[in-house]
């Protein structure tokens, strides 16, 4: 009898929760629609929509990117590349359907195409002002977010300039640490890439990797090793025990061995 009572209660519960055929359908709600540059290009955009449906119906997304290109039955996140001759201002429209009702949203984008500017540097002048970077950061104001820029692009320029000031990418180590949150994962890596053209030639500058190792050892609690590696690298540079890119003629192996011996000798 108890089991029958439970089954009866469950049946009534499901019957109550089940959507009746005569009930009014509630249309989907679009809570946000955003469009952002997908990278350094002025024309690559990434769009994201957030929509909900109170009746838990499956939703479909139809996009109109404002340049004559549409996409039916798309996804809630879409990427789109505008043509170079696209209108300066476009209105992106989104339709979200649950199969019975449609909700719409739109946003307006200003595509700043810009005109590329050729910059000719004068080697005789040590400090120069470069006006109108065009696609590289600014039109009339330095480092203003422009058509061909992004945070990572600016970061690459600044870090590469810093590396050049200290002797090139072969000298630039890096450490990414959570200074305000000790104990979190840290990342240590040379600033330079893998340099495929140098593979197997024993010509790559090892100092960036060695200096990075020093920072990592210091971070891990091996006090004094960072300073010792820095002193050893300085000595290698002063004595010409370095690779060609920083004024020497030694191989990767020779330069690394010199630093290793200096560090182990605690010089």
Descriptive overview:
The chain has 267 residues and is of the alpha+beta class. The chain has helices at 2-17, 151-165, 207-219, 225-238, 252-264; strands at residues 29-37, 44-52, 60-64, 70-74, 77-81, 89-97, 102-110, 173-176, 187-190. Helix 3 packs antiparallel against helix 4 (225-238) and helix 4 (225-238) crosses helix 5 (252-264). The strands form 3 sheets. A 4-stranded antiparallel sheet has the order 4-3-6-7, with no helix packed on it. It contains 5 helices and 9 strands, in the order H-E-E-E-E-E-E-E-H-E-E-H-H-H. The chain is elongated and about 85 Å long. Among the domains are: 29-110, Immunoglobulin-like (Sandwich), CATH 2.60.40; 168-264, no CATH class.
